[in-house]
Amino acid sequence: MGIAADFVLIVVAGLAGAVLARLLRLPLLVGYIAAGVIVGPNTAGPTVQSIQDIELLAEIGVALLLFSLGLEISIRDMLAVRRVALIGGPIQILGCGALGWIAGHRFFAMNPAEALWFGAMVAMSSTMVIVKMIDERGVSRTLASRVMVGMTVLQDLAVIPLLILLPQAGTWSGAAERILRSLGVAALFLGLVVLLGTRLLPWVLRRILRWGSREMFLVAVVAVSVGVGFAVSHAGLSFALGAFIAGLILSESEFSHQALSELAPLRDIFGLLFFVSVGMLFEPQYVLSHPGKIFAGVVFIFLMKSVFIGLLARSFGYIYMAPWVIGLGMASIGEFSFVLARTGIRGGFISKETYDFALTCTILSIALAPAVASLALPLGRWWRRRFPPPKNVRHFEAPRELLRDHILVAGYGRTGRAVAGVLRAAGLPVVIIELNHALFNDIRADGVPALWGDVSSEEILRAAGLKNARLLILTVPDGDIVGLATQRARKLAPHVPVIARAARVPLIDELRRLGAASAILPEFEGGMEMARQAMLRSGIDPGRAEEIILQIKERYVGEGA
């Protein structure tokens, strides 16, 4: 059966790993990596035979995931973080690479040349893992998420000069010329792709949609993602980076949401192949032979990268929880480390011992990345309790008019925009609190009084005039931020009612316990309204319909409590 049998084995093993991960309350990617260890060549049991073919298919998974991310983020979102990406990105690569070189040479018994390769591998973060975590948490539009994506995209670009420079460590003649030539060709090619993409791709998709075939639309979307990725790879850039650029191009068109919807199932299946292929590289025997060294390496990587990147983010003006989220979110080693490691060992630049050590640290860091990233909010809150920000520091922009008897609306996404629009139409004074700076600019363009900042910050709540407000409405989708904001709002102004958005049904009771006057699950309320409309159009008496809706609401909320 060949690769077909391997594909079946991987999907079945991936399902088993996903079920186990869910039972243990772990992210799905950890289950996928564990499945790869089981079906890999280094463990007993059923084994994948066509490993190289699976790795090639896994590249498509990376491309589809980054294409999907590009559809969600948009060019405008990326421009909002261009400063930290273009300036902070190189600083991060050089800083983490230097610290990795020092650790490799001084503590892990590598010669200076091998330590240089190790430092370069350590400097890379996992774009695939970061994107998967962002997708699972539904936070692709947050500022911290866009910063992480912007910096990892620059890391992907940095692979080109690294692959030229590292093999010539000690003999740099001609390297600068080759790097400039490669980057020039890549930049020219990317410009051509963007120019043709913005003019040609929307026109092609409109022509296809006129035929009314969703199947053709899906095929066209996949062709765009992998086709642009393949074309960009011929310019010396990564296949996945090309797909990400294609997603950014389409994100500005009217096709982005439908393309994302159509692509999601295919993306998830091919993404499974990537994480399973990562697990297949794992060698348990090497870990058992060098447990202390591996433990020290993984701890060093997470500590060094999280602290360095977190402080770097803070130095660029990102505050509150953002440095914690960015630092811990980018603490793992990236998949391009595999490329550097293979280039190093094939060229004889690193030993088999260094290759095995770097590869094992990379795999373990990828597997542990979700758990480490989940520590960001708890650690950030602990730090802010121990070291509160100075009272005279202002990280927000307050409206000029006097804030009194107004309604505060936190978040200007789809839900917040709808809430604010209705309230303003009713003639009620509204002030928006928004941390997403791209959205904040939209609010100001709409002429709505707004503050830029984190609603869970006591300083922001004070600046927004919470004590003089008539109501606080929390529409942000992040359940942790909503809970923290509710708690602090009740502490600062217990007389002001809080209407909070619940991310899940079990959180409704938790928000009420924290003091929210009402906890709303938007998806559930939308479903109830659709059901009410269906009953009315089916001839059911309006009073009876309302009675049924109320009964279902009471029962549903009661079960989720």
Model description:
This protein is mainly α and 561 residues long. It folds into two domains: 357 residues, Na+/H+ antiporter like fold; 114 residues, 3-Layer(aba) Sandwich (Rossmann fold), CATH 3.40.50. Helix 23 links the parallel strand 5 and strand 6. Helix 15 packs across helix 18. The radius of gyration is 25 Å and the shape is globular. The two termini are 50 Å apart.
**Tally of individual helices:** 25
**Oligomeric form of this entry?**
single chain
Strand order across the largest sheet: 3-2-1-4-5-6
End-to-end separation in angstroms reads: 50 Å
The radius of gyration computed from the alpha-carbon positions, rounded to a whole number of angstroms, is 25 Å
Structural class: mainly alpha
Main sheet properties: 6 strands, parallel
| CATH architectural arrangement of the largest domain | Up-down Bundle
Stretches with pLDDT under 50, minimum 5 residues: 392-402
Binned strand content: under 5%
Give the number of DSSP strands: 6
What is the molecular shape? globular
CATH class of the largest domain: Mainly Alpha
**Number of domain units:** 2
What's the pLDDT, averaged over the residues? 80
Helix content: over 70%
CATH topology of the largest domain: Na+/H+ antiporter like fold
What are the salient characteristics of this protein?
Rossmann fold; single chain; Na+/H+ antiporter like fold; 6-stranded parallel beta sheet; 561 residues; 70% helix; 2 domains; mainly alpha
Quick structural summary:
The protein is mainly α and 561 residues long. Helices cover 70% and strands 4% of the residues.
